[in-house]
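In the current project phase, the collection of sequences with tokenised folds has grown. One resulting record follows, to show the layout:
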Amino acid sequence: MQFTLDAITGAPAFVRNGRLDILAVNRLGRALYSEMYRDPGRPVNHARFIFLSPRSAEFYPDWNKAASDTVAILRTESGRDPYSRELSDLVGELSMRSEEFRTRWAAHDVRQHFTGLKHFHHPVVGDIDLKFEAMDLAADPGLSLLVYPAEPGSASEDALRLLGSWAATLEQAEQKETAAVADNQ
């Protein structure tokens, strides 16, 4: 799957599970969601980021919509897999640590989320509006591939190009750092 994601070079793309963990991501997807990758130690998870990171309110210009959509997706997953220990643990953690999550969870909204428009405010490139398509992976039930292309000729397409350049620069710096550490050992 990583090979396939890496072949998608003009749009952020990633694979997630029903708990909203990002399991695999292409370079542009990692750059777009770089704010989520700043907190080490756990798998990257959309719900944790939205409800537990203060950076999420800046990253999502319409935070309320992002938060409500996230809970509705988790509710849908809980109906699909009601005995999932991992999902129950995540819901319990978020319920204990976020009043916003508890309130939305109690509303019992359920929604499938396969296509639409997402609005982001990235700390490096600013505002980006991206369409998205989510596709279930037939060979891996419970996993979805999401791709976020920009409208051709738009300011968001320019922002994605800039984001791609930024990501390539970071990747080169990391490779040099890794090589320097290896040379010193």
About this structure: The two ends are 33 Å apart (CA to CA).
